[in-house]
C-alpha cells in the first residue's frame, strides 16, 4: 500500500454512521408487533429474510433492541457466513444478547454461546453441511432456551430468537432458505422488499405447502435506507471490505483495547511482533473444508493462513454427524516441524485454547491490507519464528 492515504486507513472504518440510518414507522411497528403482540410463553421466533442490501442486519439489530425492552435476554442465530453479525467471517453462531446495541451499523464482536466454522463466505460450496450446522444450532437453542421444563422450574428461562439470513435468495440460495424456514418453523417471518422487484422473494408464505395448516405471522416491509433528501435508496456495501473489517477487528483483540493501534499498518506491525502460541503439531488434527489436500502438502497449505480453532465433538455416528465446536480463529504464522510446533496468533484465551485439538482450514484469508503495508513484514514473517518445510 504505497499511497499515504491508504496506509492511514483506520481499523474502525465502517459503514455510514448510525445517525444517518432512518428507521421508518413500518419497521418500528413490525418490531413492536413481534415483541409486544406475542405470548411470552413461548416467546417469538422471528426469521428475517430479503435480498442483498435490503437492511436485514439493521432491522435485526432494531428488533433485538425492541425485544430487550421486554425480555432480559434474546438469542440471535446468525446464518450469514459472509457478513455475520457478532463473529468473524466464515462462522455460523448462536449468541445470547443481554444489552442494547446503540449503534445499528457498526459491527460488534461478541462471544457466541455456540459457534461452528463453515470456512467460506457463501453456502454454495456445501449447502448440506451449511444446513446441518444451522439445524444443530437451532436444536441447541430449543433444548437450552425454548423447551419448557416439565416441572415448571423457574430456572428454565425461555428466550425469544432472532434469525438473520444471507441475501442469496435465488436458485440454490432460495432452496436453502426454504429448508431453513421449514425446519425452524418461526412464529414470525419478516420479509424486507427492495424496489427491484425481480430480486425479491415471492410474496406470501412461499415456503409452505398449499395444504399446510401451519400458522405464521408474515410481515412484509420495505427497505428503509434514505439519503439526505429523505428518499429511499439502496445502499451498496463493499462486501469484501466489510468482511476484511470483521477479520481485522477480530485479530485486533489480541491486544488491549487501550493499545495505540488505530491503523492497518500499526496492527500489521503489532501482529508481526506479537509472541505466538506454541501448539504441538502432534496434538492437532487438520481438517480441510470444501477441498482435499495431499498429505505431503498439509503444512504448506496451512502456513500463513487463517484456521478455525475447534474442539472435536464427542458425539459422532451415522445418524448424528460430528460437528466440532469452534472457539475462535487463528493465524498459523509459522511451522517448525523439527520442534513439532505450530506458531499461532489468536485472541482466544489460553484456557480455551488448551481444549483445541483440531484446525479447520477453509477459504477465509488474511486481509490483504495487513500483508501489503509498505515497510512492514507480514504477520507470519516475524524473525523470531523458524519456518521449515
Count of individual beta strands: 13
Order of helices and strands: HHEHEEEHEHEEHHEEHEEEHE
Overall, the morphology is: globular
pLDDT below 50 for ≥5 consecutive residues: which ranges?
1-9, 12-18, 231-235, 381-389
**Helix count?**
9
Percent in helix: 10-25%
**What Rg do the Cα atoms give?**
22 Å
What is the mean pLDDT?
84
Oligomer: single chain
Record the strand order, biggest sheet.
4-3-2-5-1-6-7
Largest sheet: 7 strands, mixed
Global structural class: alpha/beta
How far do the termini sit from each other?
Answer: 29 Å
Q: What portion of residues belong to β-strands? A: 15-25%
Task: Describe what is shown at a glance.
The chain has 389 residues and is an alpha/beta fold. It is built from nine helices and 13 strands.
Write the layout of secondary structure elements.
Blueprint: H1 4-7, H2 25-36, E1 45-50, H3 56-67, E2 74-78, E3 91-97, E4 114-117, H4 127-146, E5 161-164, H5 172-184, E6 188-193, E7 217-222, H6 239-252, H7 264-273, E8 277-280, E9 285-288, H8 298-302, E10 305-311, E11 325-336, E12 341-345, H9 350-353, E13 358-361
Helix pairs in contact: 2-3, 4-5
Notable characteristics:
single chain; about 400 residues; alpha/beta; seven-stranded mixed β-sheet; six-stranded mixed β-sheet; 9 helices; 13 strands; globular; disordered N terminus; disordered C terminus
Amino acid at each position: 500500500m504505497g499511497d499515504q492515504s491508504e496506509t492511514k486507513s483506520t481499523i474502525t472504518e465502517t459503514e455510514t454512521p448510525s445517525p444517518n440510518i432512518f428507521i421508518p414507522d413500518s419497521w418500528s411497528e413490525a418490531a413492536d408487533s413481534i415483541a409486544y403482540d406475542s405470548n411470552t410463553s413461548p416467546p417469538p421466533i422471528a426469521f428475517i429474510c430479503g435480498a442483498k442490501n435490503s437492511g436485514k442486519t439493521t432491522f435485526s439489530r432494531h428488533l433485538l433492541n425492541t425485544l430487550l425492552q421486554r425480555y432480559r435476554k434474546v438469542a440471535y442465530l446468525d446464518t450469514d457466513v459472509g457478513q455475520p453479525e457478532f463473529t468473524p467471517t466464515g462462522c455460523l453462531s448462536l449468541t445470547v444478547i443481554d444489552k442494547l446495541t446503540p449503534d445499528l451499523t457498526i459491527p460488534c464482536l461478541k462471544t457466541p454461546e455456540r459457534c461452528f466454522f463453515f470456512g467460506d463466505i457463501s453456502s454454495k460450496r456445501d449447502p448440506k453441511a451449511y444446513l446441518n450446522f444451522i439445524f444443530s444450532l437451532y436444536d441447541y437453542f430449543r433444548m437450552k432456551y425454548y423447551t419448557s421444563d416439565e416441572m415448571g422450574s423457574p430456572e428454565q428461562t425461555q428466550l425469544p430468537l432472532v434469525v438473520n439470513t444471507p441475501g442469496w435468495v435465488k436458485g440454490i440460495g432460495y432452496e436453502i432458505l426454504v429448508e431453513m424456514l421449514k425446519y425452524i418453523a418461526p412464529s414470525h417471518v419478516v420479509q424486507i422488499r427492495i424496489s427491484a422487484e425481480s430480486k425479491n422473494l415471492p410474496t406470501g408464505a412461499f415456503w409452505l405447502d398449499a395444504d399446510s395448516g401451519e400458522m405464521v405471522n408474515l410481515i412484509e416491509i420495505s427497505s428503509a435506507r434514505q439519503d439526505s433528501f429523505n428518499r429511499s435508496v439502496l445502499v451498496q456495501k463493499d462486501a469484501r471490505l466489510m468482511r476484511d473489517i470483521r477479520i481485522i477487528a477480530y485479530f485486533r483483540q489480541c491486544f488491549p483495547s487501550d493499545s495505540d493501534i488505530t491503523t492497518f499498518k500499526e496492527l500489521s506491525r503489532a501482529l508481526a511482533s506479537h509472541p505466538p502460541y506454541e501448539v504441538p503439531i502432534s496434538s492437532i488434527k487438520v481438517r480441510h473444508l470444501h477441498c482435499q489436500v495431499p498429505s505431503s502438502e498439509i503444512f504448506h497449505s496451512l502456513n500463513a493462513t487463517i484456521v478455525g480453532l475447534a474442539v472435536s465433538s464427542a458425539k459422532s455416528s451415522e445418524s448424528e454427524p460430528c460437528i466440532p465446536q469452534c472457539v475462535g480463529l487463528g493465524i498459523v504464522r509459522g511451522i517448525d516441524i523439527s520442534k513439532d510446533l505450530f506458531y499461532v496468533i489468536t485472541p482466544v484465551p489460553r484456557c480455551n485454547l488448551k481444549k483445541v485439538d483440531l484446525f479447520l482450514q477453509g477459504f477465509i484469508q488474511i486481509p490483504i491490507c495487513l500483508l501489503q503495508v509498505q515497510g512492514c513484514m507480514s504477520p507470519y514473517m516475524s524473525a523470531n519464528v523458524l519456518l521449515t518445510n
